[in-house]
């Protein structure tokens, strides 16, 4: 019977890990800094990744020297640091995506933002019908310019070619393994 309990606990923890989102570290090992002109821009990096509801961004920076602002498209395009939706200055900011749509981030220092320390992330809509969240409307000025910088790629994998969510495939596989083990145990 103890093998049965261990199997159930293992399956439970596997399901939890499948349901968790991916954390993307902005700027890689360098963190959230003014980008080097030779490096990949923050937005080029963001365009190569697929962000989903439940994923998060990790901004690492020196709190005495920088901060992160969540802004609208207009403040993003003009580097307006006085008009923000949210302000972060703890040096280790985790921002979780709870809805789909465009998210605009800039440095809290206007000079840094003017030097392209800014990022636009597009979070994909949840197509599983498990959420009633509607995608955010796209502002007229939402075409992001290619600015920013990141060196570290996340561990997130693209979805399977048939369009099925990798989380769903993983969960179904785990459930199948549990059911197979249960039928074998009894």
Structural overview:
The protein has a domain at 21-123: Immunoglobulin-like (Sandwich). Helices cover 30% and strands 18% of the residues. It is built from five helices and seven strands; from the N terminus they run αβαββαβββαβα. It has helices at 2-19, 42-47, 73-78, 110-114, 166-185, and strands spanning 23-26, 56-60, 68-71, 86-88, 92-96, 101-107, 118-123. A four-stranded antiparallel sheet has the order 4-3-6-7. Strands 1-2-5 form a three-stranded mixed sheet, with no helix packed on it. Strand 1, helix 2 (42-47) and strand 2 form a beta-alpha-beta unit. Helix 1 (2-19) packs antiparallel against helix 5 (166-185). Belongs to the early nodulin-like (ENODL) family. One of its GO terms (molecular function) is electron transfer activity. It is found in: Cell membrane. Residues 22-125 form the Phytocyanin domain.
- Residue share in helix: 25-40%
Average pLDDT level = 75
Q: What shape does the CA trace take?
A: globular
Question: Which class of secondary structure composition applies to the elements?
Answer: alpha+beta
Unreliable spans are 13-18, 138-169
CATH topology of the domain at 21-123: Immunoglobulin-like
CATH homologous superfamily (4th level) name of the domain at 21-123: Cupredoxins -  blue copper proteins
- Please state the oligomeric state of the protein chains shown: single chain
Beta-strand residue fraction: 15-25%
Give the second-level CATH assignment, the architecture of the domain at 21-123. Answer: Sandwich
Provide the spatial order of strands within the biggest beta sheet: 4-3-6-7
State the helix count: 5
Task: Output the CATH class name of the domain at 21-123.
Answer: Mainly Beta
Secondary-structure element string = HEHEEHEEEHEH
Gyration radius, in Å: 20 Å
Distance between the termini: 11 Å
Largest sheet: 4 strands, antiparallel
Total number of beta strands? 7
């Amino acid at each position: 019977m103890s093998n049965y309990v261990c199997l159930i606990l293992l399956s439970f923890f596997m399901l939890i890990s499948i349901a968790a989102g991916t954390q993307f570290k902005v700027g890689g090992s360098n963190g959230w800094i003014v980008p080097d002109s030779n490096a990949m821009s923050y937005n080029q990096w963001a365009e190569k990744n697929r962000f989903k509801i439940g994923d998060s961004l990790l901004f690492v920076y020196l709190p005495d020297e920088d901060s992160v602002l969540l802004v609208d498209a207009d403040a993003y395009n003009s580097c307006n640091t006085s008009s923000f939706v949210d302000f972060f200055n703890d040096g280790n900011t985790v921002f979780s995506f709870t809805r789909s749509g465009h998210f605009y981030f800039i440095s809290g220092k206007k000079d840094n933002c003017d030097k392209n320390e800014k990022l636009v992330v597009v979070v994909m809509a949840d197509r599983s019908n498990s959420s009633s969240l509607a995608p955010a409307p796209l502002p007229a000025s939402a075409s992001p310019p290619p600015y920013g910088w990141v060196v570290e790629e996340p561990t997130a994998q693209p979805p399977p070619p048939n369009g099925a969510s990798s989380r769903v495939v993983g969960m179904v596989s785990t459930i199948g393994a549990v059911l197979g083990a249960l039928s074998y145990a009894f």
